[in-house]
Amino acid sequence: MVRVSKAVTADRKATMDEVRVHAAALSRLAGELGLDAPRLRDDGTVVIHSAHPGYQEANRLSAAASEVVGAYVNVITDDVPGAVRSRPL
Predict the structure, then answer these.
(1) What pLDDT, on a 0 to 100 scale, did the predictor assign at position 45?
(2) Beta carbons within 10 angstroms of residue 82's beta carbon
(3) What are the domain boundaries of the chain?
(4) pTM of structure
(5) Which of 6, 46, 60, 69 has the most CB within a 10 Å radius?
(6) pLDDT in tens, 56-66
(7) What is the DSSP string of the chain?
């Protein structure tokens, strides 16, 4: 059975400060999903590198991260122009 996050894109998006407070937990979640070195943009978006095509891994991390943070956490892959301005989570 697929687990669906209670947070959806219509929910309030987490800020950079809200995400940073949970950085250790989110880094652990990323590691559990096989993702190394997640990064954070100034707008609170988490940037990941995925060896697989599509957004399946980003969606999984977003759902889990949203549960931890308590607000929607946007996660994108690093193969898009919006990923260039990010720093280590």
Answers:
(1) 96
(2) 12
(3) 16-88
(4) 0.84
(5) 46
(6) 999 999 999 99
(7) -----S--TTSPBPPHHHHHHTHHHHHHHHHHTT--S-EEETTS-EEE--SSSSSHHHHHHHHHHHHHHSSB--EEETTSGGGSSEEE-
